[in-house]
C-alpha cells in the first residue's frame, strides 16, 4: 500500500491518500488538490509529489 500525506506536500491539511500504486495515489491526490485546495496539479508538481509517496 502506498501513502501520501497532504501535509507533506505543504498544505495545512490532515488528509491521507492510500492506494495500491503510486499512479493511483497521484490520481487521487490531483482530485483532492483540485476539489479541496483549488490547486491544479501540473506534471512538474506531480513529479515532486511522487517523491513524497511512501510504503505503508
Principal-axis shape: globular
Number of strands: 3
The assigned structural class equals: alpha+beta
Q: Give the DSSP E fraction (strand runs of 2 or more residues).
A: 15-25%
The main sheet comes to: 3 strands, antiparallel
> What is the helix fraction of residues, given as a range?
40-55%
> Could you tell me the radius of gyration in angstroms?
10 Å
InterPro entries: DUF1059 (IPR009409)
Protein name: DUF1059 domain-containing protein
Pfam family, one: DUF1059
Structural features, described:
With 56 residues, this protein is of the alpha+beta class. The chain has a domain at 1-16 and 43-56. It is 43% helix and 18% strand. The chain contains 2 helices and 3 strands, in the order E-E-H-H-E. The protein has helices at residues 22-37, 43-50, and strands spanning 2-5, 16-19, 54-55. It has a 3-stranded antiparallel beta sheet with strand order 2-1-3, covered by helices on one side. The N and C termini lie close together (6 Å). The relative contact order is 0.27. The mean pLDDT is 97.
SSE topology sketch:
Blueprint (H helix, E strand, L loop, with lengths): L1 E4 L10 E4 L2 H16 L5 H8 L3 E2 L1
Antiparallel strand pairs: 1-2, 1-3
Task: Write a short abstract of this structure.
The chain has a domain of 30 residues. With 56 residues, the protein is an alpha+beta fold. A three-stranded antiparallel sheet has the order 2-1-3, with helices on one face.
Amino acid at each position: 500500500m502506498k501513502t501520501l500525506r497532504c501535509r507533506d506536500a505543504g498544505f495545512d491539511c490532515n488528509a491521507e491518500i492510500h492506494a495500491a500504486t503510486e499512479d493511483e495515489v497521484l490520481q487521487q491526490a490531483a482530485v483532492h488538490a483540485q476539489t479541496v485546495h483549488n490547486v491544479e496539479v501540473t506534471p512538474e508538481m506531480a513529479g515532486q509529489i511522487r517523491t513524497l509517496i511512501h510504503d505503508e
